Amino acid sequence: MGKKEKEKKEKPLDRMTAKELRETALKIPEITGVHGMNKPELLAAIKKARGIVDEVTKKSNVSVREIKKKIRDLKTAKAQLKEGGDKAQAKIMRRRISRLKKKTRMAA
Fold it and tell me: Residue 66 in contact with residue 107, Cβ under 8 Å?
């Protein structure tokens, strides 16, 4: 009986390593200087050569520096609340700080 060969599905470009992207880019004749490119440059060049439109993800308009400044302010407020003995308000501040830290990770 004949063996069925599974067709290799190509990984999404975003999930490929830089080495795999270089191998893919070498097969495309329009792209030059492949070995000198880093991963974002390779992704952009391959997508441009293949005609793939890059979906722009909406980033928040708040900068990471502004968020971190708010975190510092909230930390000082939390410390003052703890010293004053208001543990409930300190717990609320802790949650606010946690949410802002998550925003910095998303904005980066």
Answer: no
Relative orientation angle of helices 64-84 and 87-107, to the nearest 10 degrees: 170
Phi, psi of 17 (to 5 degrees): -80, 170
pLDDT in tens, 7-26: 667 788 888 999 999 999 99
Q: CA torsion angle for 63, 17, 10, 35 (degrees, to 10)?
A: 110
Q: Which token pair is 43?
A: 């992704």
Domain map (residue ranges) of the chain: 13-50, 64-107
- CA-closest candidate to residue 46, choices 29, 60, 63, 61: 29
pLDDT digits (tens, 9 = 90+) for 72-86: 999 999 999 999 999
